[in-house]
Specification:
The complex is a heterodimer of chains A (about 110) and B (about 120). Chain A is mostly beta strands and about 110 residues long. Chain A contains no helices and 11 strands. In chain A, strand 4 and strand 5 form a beta hairpin. Chain B is mainly β and about 120 residues long. Chain B is globular and about 40 Å long. The N and C termini of chain B lie far apart (about 35 Å). In chain B, about 35% of the residues are buried. Classes of the chains: A mainly beta (about 110), B mainly beta (about 120).
Chain lengths: ~110, ~120
């Protein structure tokens, strides 16, 4: 079945710096890719999602890149601020079936003032 | 706004006891999911449902049952709770979008401690 690896598990950056989180997946049939943010004590909030026909998507200081050849998905937070401190998860799913999401193991991002 | 409500938010149970976690969604989604979250594992799918009356096994169903009596409600049942089931449980709902993919909405989680 699909395997998703996420790195790094912990990431600390200074305010204003970029933060990059990477996920790799194994199933070439994977069709849907998403990033979630989890703040302390809260549920998961969808940040961005892309389909497999999209290589790059930018929204509100976030950039998602999809490299299907290398089966790699990345999230880039440009100009991070302390409010971005949270745990970030990638999640992927195939194009059929239950649309169940397979999650990465998460990245704890800390943005220091 | 899409809403998924879980109850209780916190639960302490004794080993061998029965635990029921409840979830209600007002999104009118067909699909609902139960995940557990443990450090180092991300979220793992326990059970899911395609609609009222349907329950399907996810990746880690052992020790859990699920019930979907209606479109809105999806319960996770631990018949004989064990300390290894201490975790944070998330319910979610979501349906495939018209353009492909699916946006999944999560509840705030239930922290279960089995002593």
């Amino acid at each position: 079945g699909e395997q998703v690896e996420q790195r790094p598990p912990h990431l600390s950056v200074r305010e204003g710096d970029s933060a990059i989180i990477i996920c790799t997946y194994t199933d070439s049939a994977t069709a849907y890719f998403s990033w979630y943010k989890q703040e302390a004590g809260a549920g998961l909030q969808l940040l961005m999602s892309v389909l497999s026909n999209v290589d790059r998507k930018e929204e509100q200081g976030l950039t998602v890149l999809l490299n299907k050849k290398d089966k790699r998905l990345s999230l880039n937070l440009t100009a991070a601020h302390p409010g971005d401190s949270a745990v970030y998860f990638c999640a992927v799913s195939a194009s059929s079936g239950s649309w169940q999401l397979i999650f990465g193991s998460g990245t704890q991002l800390t943005v220091m003032p | 706004e899409a809403a998924v409500t879980q109850s209780p938010r916190n639960k302490v149970a004794v080993t061998g006891g029965k635990v029921t976690l409840s979830c209600n969604q007002t999104n009118n989604h067909n699909n609902m999911y139960w995940y557990r979250q443990d450090t180092g594992h991300g979220l793992r799918l326990i059970h899911y449902s395609y609609g009222a009356g349907s329950t399907e096994k996810g990746d880690i169903p052992d020790g859990y049952k699920a019930s979907r009596p209606s479109q809105e409600n999806f319960s996770l049942i631990l018949e004989l709770a064990t300390p290894s089931q201490t975790s944070v449980y998330f319910c979610a709902s979501g349906d495939p979008g018209t353009g492909g993919g699916t946006e999944v909405f999560f509840g705030k989680g239930t922290r279960l401690t089995v002593v």
